[in-house]
Structures are given as structure tokens and as C-alpha cells.
Amino acid sequence: xxxxxxxxxxxxxxxxxxxxxxxxxxxxxxxxxxxxxxxxxxxxxxxxxxxxxxxxxxxxxxxxxxxxxxxxxxxxxxxxxxxxxxxxxxxxxxxxxxxxxxxxxxxxxxxxxxxxxxxxxxxxxxxxxxxxxxxxxxxxxxxxxxxxxxxxxxxxxxxxxxxxxxxxxxxxxxxxxxxxxxxxxxxxxxxxxxxxxxxxxxxxxxxxxxxxxxxxxxxxxxxxxxxxxxxxxxxxxxxxxxxxxxxxxxxxxxxxxxxxxxxxxxxxxxxxxxxxxxxxxxxxxxxxxxxxxxxxxxxxxxxxxxxxxxxxxxxxxxxxxxxxxxxxxxxxxxxxxxxxxxxxxxxxxxxxxxxx
Length: 356
Prior knowledge:
Elements: H1 2-18, E1 24-26, E2 29-31, H2 33-78, H3 85-126, H4 137-146, H5 154-183, H6 191-197, H7 205-225, H8 258-262, E3 270-277, H9 280-290, E4 296-301, E5 308-317, H10 321-331, E6 336-341
Helix pairs in contact: 2-3, 2-5, 3-4, 3-5, 5-7, 9-10
């Protein structure tokens, strides 16, 4: 019996050492680190599936453009009596397909952005012990889930899909249009006859040729002008910090190139909260405990009541606003919380104060 008692006595400390502190609690549920990783794995698989679905939709739109172009050219060159305007109508249809694909590409980049965040700063960090993910990757991911927004503009999506696929389709249509006018029913005797064949209804051939030149020059200029827009996460992942909010005053004096003027640098949204409360100590302690954010207290006086009240200042990010409201409500339901955007916050868990 003595041996058994000693065995049980020795086993208790081991159980206490093995006990793992929960990393997330909600209404009595306690999530351990292993369960957290499992949840992240399922979330990663779901975002991969989303990205694959929208990638497939991109290929579908391109297939539409290719099939329609092939069918149109077969009809146009299969019969000499078919007017060349059918190629022009096909060009407009392909332009509409390009617009649809650019819109779908923005959705694809939204899911791809989340996937890249988990790949670079969650899974990649696991491969290089000790496990130290970026302190802001979860903030960026949570912010994207709470307030989803397209990571790229419509201009960038349109230009990217134009360069990758559609510009070559447009070039084929241009060559086919010229060939249709020139070859059918037979080669023109001079330039005047070629211009006459280029007409569409009451619109003279000179105007049609001019519109065609303007259209393809516009496509070429647009493709070149958007070539340096690299916000798409499928190509380049925007790093944390300076890419998601307006440039701070400390960066405004730095030299800028033409691209930086067209595409202003942004940093993550940062906020400043003012809490007017009669329970300053309890509220500040709650914020320090729940949010791990510093609090600065000031004294104020009501304009009409003349009552002394405390004003607490707290810098935070957009994903912490809900937690701040919850923390304040636990201690003082009569408190007033004012949240406003901050131009730049340095130090204290935000950007380094030395600017490096």
C-alpha cells in the first residue's frame, strides 16, 4: 500500500506539468494549442478551395473568349459573303469577357491574400524553430476577415489579365479583321478600295480604321501603364506594416517616384480610443489584462455637471475595437468610448520609434 501511495504522489506533479494553458477561451470552452493548429489547418484548406474555385472561373472566362473567337473566325473566313463587322462584334464581346474576368480576378486575389498570409507567416515559421510568427500576421488576417476588401484595384486586375491572355486574342482579331477586308472577295486594287470595304453601314471606312487604331493603341498603353502595379498577392505579397494605410508624416519627406504618386503607399489602420469613465482604475486594469495595451489617464470636468471624470487614452488596431468595447463594458456600462483614426503611432507595439 505504501508503494502505491508513493506512486500516486509522484504522478500528480507530472500531470500538473503536462497541463497546458488554453490559448483561447469563449463561454466556457478552452482551446488548446493543438486544437488551434487544427482549426487553422481546416481554415487554410477552406481558403485554398475558395481560391481554386475562383481560379477555375478565370479559366472558364478565357475559354469563352477563345471558343467564341474561333467560331467567329470560322464563320468569317468560311463564307466570302459574311461581312467583316462580325469580327468587330466579336472584339467587343471579348472585351466584355475581359471585364468579367478582371472582376473575378479581384475575388481570386482576396482568397489568395489570406492563403499567402498563412503560408508565409504561420506555416513557414513552423519550419524554422523556434516558432516565432510575425506579430502582425494574425492582425492582418483577422482584419481581412472582419472587414474584407479587395487587395487590388479594378485597373490592376484589368491590366494583368489583358497582358497575360487577352492582348494576344485581340491581336489575332486585328489580323483577322484586316485579312477579312483585304482578301474577300478578292484583293483590293488600291488603298481607296480598301477604305471603302472597311465601312460599316453609314460609317465611312476612314472612321472605322481610325477607331480601330485608337482602340488598339489604348490597349497597348493601358497594358504598359499597369505593368508596375504589383499589389496582387498571387505575384507579390505585400509585407506587414507600411502597405495598408496612408503614408505617415515621417515618410512624407522621402523622395517619391512617379509610381509612388500613382499608387500611394499605405499602412495598416491604426486607431486612438478615448474612454470617459468614473472608474478609471478598474477600466485601465481591465484593458491591460485583456488587450495587453497601455493606457494613459487624464483628468477632465463635465461642462454642465461640473463633475470630475477620467479620460483614458489607448492606441489600438482595428481588430481590437470589439475587445476594447467588451473590456470597458465589463467595468463601466456608463462609460463613453470614442474611437478615431490615428495618422501614425510609433512605439509601444506599433512601428519602431527610430523609424527603422
